[in-house]
Amino acid sequence: MPVTHTLEADVLRRQDPELAEILLGELDRQSTTLQLIAAENFSSPAVLAALGSPLANKYAEGYPGARHHGGCEIVDVAERLAVDRAKALFGAEHANVQSHSGSSAVLAAYAALLRPGDTVLALGLPYGGHLTHGSPANFSGRWFDFVGYGVDAETGLIDYDQVRTLARTHRPKAIVCGSIAYPRHIDYAVFREVADEVGAYLIADAAHPMGLVAGGAAPSPVPYADVVCATTHKVLRGPRGGMILCGAELAERVDRAVFPFTQGGAQMHSIAAKAVAFGEAATPEFRLYAHQVVANARALAALLAAEGLVVTTGGTDTHLITADPAPLGVDGRTARGRLAAAGMVLDCCALPHGDARGLRLGTAAVTTQGMGEEEMASIAALLAGVLRGETESLKARDQVRELTGRFQPYTG
Ligand SMILES: Cc1ncc(COP(=O)(O)O)c(C=O)c1O
Predict the structure, then answer these.
(1) Which of 29, 100, 303, 322 could share a disulfide with 312, CB 3.0–4.6 Å?
(2) If the chain, 412 residues long, is cut into consecutive pieces of 10 residues, what is the mean pLDDT of each piece?
(3) Domains of the chain (ranges, CATH numbers)
(4) Distance 14 CA to ligand 1 centre (A)
(5) How far apart are CA 146 and CA 118, in angstroms?
(6) ∠ CA(158), CA(207), CA(120), 5° rounding?
């Protein structure tokens, strides 16, 4: 499923050559290095076109049919289209597509359901919880009383017994499931059961797997969670942004929590781009893509394990892999630096055991480029060679350039 389209950079090049150079430099970086950051992807030119459209000029506080500004009749149609497509794609009764980002969506979900000081049970940050799941550096940790559940130190899997015990002990107002680094499917039914037992809301922060859900390659949280928050980028391949799905009974509370409580005017160019992405995600091609993302991640996880890295949970169900490179004689931070020098871009992450940092990588972007299991084998061999010090970074960089040269994300 290679994406081959033409990007028009001439306008900017003529008017602002300085900035055009910067954009072209970034395009070159994205095209000649391996994008293995699990949260990133290549949006289609149609999504990028909507982002760069005159809808960016429009102010539209409020919701379709009830705006605080005039002239919203056209953008109202765009927002209704995005909402209808999101509802159809995910089988949700209500969709709010205005959240500026995944974090804004989570903030709005809390605002809709909680009061400052309420207790919330979420995956602890050392185990892959997001900053919005109770970090003291984030509004969530300051305004709410977060209790963290963990993962089993041996298996790396969510400890559902601990979730139940902590819920019974702390009687949280809400339970959050979702992570920045959990490679396995989340058992939403168990979370629902626990939430029901203690009378808590269930908030699924499905920022990472939502694109897989759209493509039928991961279970959906929508039938189980009271509120589902997600990003529209990552595997979903839309513009940077967020969305919230919920049942009809919470629709008004969620909408008010987004606007006017936590945000101002809706960003109509971004909402239009979300509509484009939802349309793309509803196609058979996207289903194939989502399944290939998982097939690639499974293959890459197995190959990295064969190279000696310790793959958390022994593999993956999703686009995301976390692994400890220590057996290759290098810690996560050093590994990330060495790989960056070789043109392989990925993140560090916490590991379930101990304090050492591991590596987090994902296959969403390379799969959009058209790479398959064969290329995963090349990537795993290159990565391990660099970490072992067997392949010099300049030589590896050339090999990355050769590989990406055959799978260009954009042309023109
Ligand atoms: C689970 C989870 N929640 C929330 C977010 C926040 O998304 P954003 O960076 O768009 O605010 C992320 C981002 O990676 C995430 O993984």
Answers:
(1) 322
(2) 55 90 96 98 97 96 97 98 98 98 98 98 95 97 97 94 98 98 98 98 98 98 98 98 98 98 98 98 98 98 98 98 96 96 96 84 98 98 97 95 97 78
(3) 51-281 (3.40.640.10), 287-405 (3.90.1150.10)
(4) 36
(5) 8
(6) 55
